[in-house]
Amino acid sequence: QLEGLCSFLQLSTCPEHLLVRFCSWLLALTPDLSYTSAAILAEQLFLQRVLSLTQPPSRHLMAALASFCSKYSQPFCRVLVAAVLREPGEGAEQTKLVCELVEECLEPDCVRLVLSQVLEVPLSEKLLPVLQAVLGRQVREPPLEVLPPKLFDLLVMTLCWQAPAFATSLNYAKLVTAVLTMYQNQVS
């Protein structure tokens, strides 16, 4: 029903300045939206807009994304971030957007969720900045929980397995250096 209502209201194509107002209204709702409803709204409101970006997002779109993320970051990551990570091709604007969300908007548990999502798809040059943003958050916020051992092991193994494919990548070299610096006690 919610998908039908979103379609009827044409929320996926509404002007971005109205999107900001709509998100403000959503945040004021009590009780909070269910996980499923928030996921449907994340898809309807943002997915096509983000996947079709060819230039940096407008300030209205960024404001709407940030406000929605502030309350519904789990469903947002499961729907939108996962779709961006799976999208083939360069996706430079989408990658920059995900990095900005990781650096500025997402809660620590969602930052770890983004890391696990990146590690679920084949690593590419496009995804290296996202991993760098996740590690940057860990450096900036020392109280941020350390990575769970399983996730850390997966990160290290992924970097090891992918090394031959990134033999000439400066971003990959920076990422490996960051991991070795941050987790020197855990890397043998």
TrEMBL record:
Return the GO cellular component terms, semicolon-separated.
Fanconi anaemia nuclear complex
Question: A biological process (GO) annotation for this entry?
Answer: interstrand cross-link repair
Q: Name one Pfam family in it.
A: FA_FANCE
Which residue ranges does the record assign to the Fanconi Anaemia group E protein C-terminal domain?
1-187
Name the InterPro entries on file.
Answer: FANCE (IPR039685), Fanconi_anaemia_gr_E_prot_C (IPR021025)
Source organism, top-level taxon: Eukaryota
User: What gene is this protein a product of?
Assistant: Fance
Which protein is depicted?
FANCE protein
